[in-house]
Amino acid sequence: MSKTVLGIVLGALLGAFDGLTAMFSAPETAPQIMGIVIGSTVKGLVVGAIVGWYATRVRSLAKGMMVGLVVAAFFAFLIAAMPNEQGGHYWVEIMVPGSIVGLIVGYATQTFGRAKGRTA
Fold first, then answer.
1. pLDDT per position as a tens digit, 58-106
2. How far apart, in whole angstroms, are the C-alpha atoms of residue 1 and residue 54?
3. How many CA atoms lie within 13 A of 2 on its CB side?
4. What angle (nearest 5°) sits at the alpha carbon of residue 95, between those of residues 90 and 96?
5. CA distances in angstroms from 3 to 24, 63, 107, 119, listed in the order given
6. Would you say 38 and 57 are in contact if contact means Cβ atoms under 8 Å apart?
7. Measured over all CA atoms, what is the biggest interatomic distance in the chain, rounded to whole angstroms?
8. Fewer Cβ within 10 Å of end Cβ, the chain: N or C?
9. SS3 track for the chain
10. Banded model confidence at residue 120, pLDDT cuts 50, 70, 90
11. Bridge partners, residue 2, by sequence
12. What's the predicted TM-score (pTM) here?
């Protein structure tokens, strides 16, 4: 599987799982769980595409993981900055799992993704 496709697929799967963790970290979000899962899946798709694309350009595990962490943390920050119904924020509950998803996708795309073959 190419690095970009691996990033997209893994990002979407882990994003959906990340969204489901909202039920455990903030049980009061149960009524919005479908929207949270869909949003996290889309966020994972975007992060996976960016990280997978980067992995096709740079062959460095450390750099790939760092890009995954930074890109995922950025998108998680955008989501966490939106206030909840009480006017507060879920900084830790969104930023930590979102960043971990980026690290995993960065690792997987660099380690397991297949680079495109070049023709002479």
1. 999 999 999 999 999 999 999 999 887 777 888 888 999 999 999 999 9
2. 15
3. 11
4. 115
5. 31, 15, 11, 18
6. no
7. 60
8. C
9. CEHHHHHHHHHHHHHHHHHHCHHHHCHHHHHHHHHHHHHHHHHHHHHHHHHHHHHHHCCCHHHHHHHHHHHHHHHHHHHHCCCCCCCCCCHHHHHHHHHHHHHHHHHHHHHCCECCCCCC
10. very low
11. 114
12. 0.88
Of 13, 12, 16, nearest in space to 34 by CA: 16
Q: Is 64 exposed, middle or buried (0-12, 13-18, 19+ CB in 10 A)?
A: buried
Give pLDDT tens digits for 9-45.
999 999 999 999 988 888 888 898 999 999 999 999 9
Q: Domain ranges in the chain?
A: 3-111
